[in-house]
Prior knowledge:
The chain has helices at residues 14-24, 47-50, 56-61, 78-89, 129-134, 142-157, 167-177, 186-191, 203-213, and strands at 7-11, 40-43, 67-73, 105-108, 114-120. It is α/β, with parallel strands linked by helices. It folds into 2 domains: 7-127 and 197-222; 129-184, no CATH class. It is globular.
Amino acid sequence: MNPNNPKQMVVEGYDDLYSVVGVMRAHVDWPDPPADPPVYIKIGKSSNEILERGYLDGLLKGNVVQMLGVMLDADTNPIGRYQSIRSLCSSFFPKMPMEMSPNGLIIENEKKKKLGVWIMPDNASPGCVETFLRFLVPSRTEPIWTHSIKATDEAKKIGCDCRDSHIDKAYLYTWLAWQDPPGQDPGKALVAKILDPKAGHCAAFARWFTELYGLGPKSDLFS
């Protein structure tokens, strides 16, 4: 991967990175390693690190990045998450709107730099990337999904240590544990079509991504 790529994206962790790649390779030309991907995806380790002053604004100040995407989990506060990003980036993009668009933000400044923001799962709801991925569960496996919810909830009742804030992650990984092969991470599950990267729920995110980075779509979601 080329850290000097002018098209870059910041995410919180490896599951986020591999989920983006797994979805987008179904919609744009995305070569296998060791070829460089069309977008260099950086891992910021946590939302706290990414939202520290000097991280996003440092990328925007530099001469390398011309198109910067920021994808963070909403967790419990999607509005607050966007406002935190806005407070860091509005000096570079003075016309940043006060509120987040449901289709994701894409804005360009007078220096022709572009900023894109996507708050998982849908720019408006609490949740995380696993909340988004839940809607990529194929309909034929919905009974297994329903059972994974019941099993996880029952495990919490008898003392499992899963935090309420992580429940969507627990549901998804319980469901993945019952697939063939069991326990694939989300990125591999998307490549193997265990999760459906062409599900209609992907359309808004895929459109945002391709428009931000000027990539030619190959997906029928765009027709």
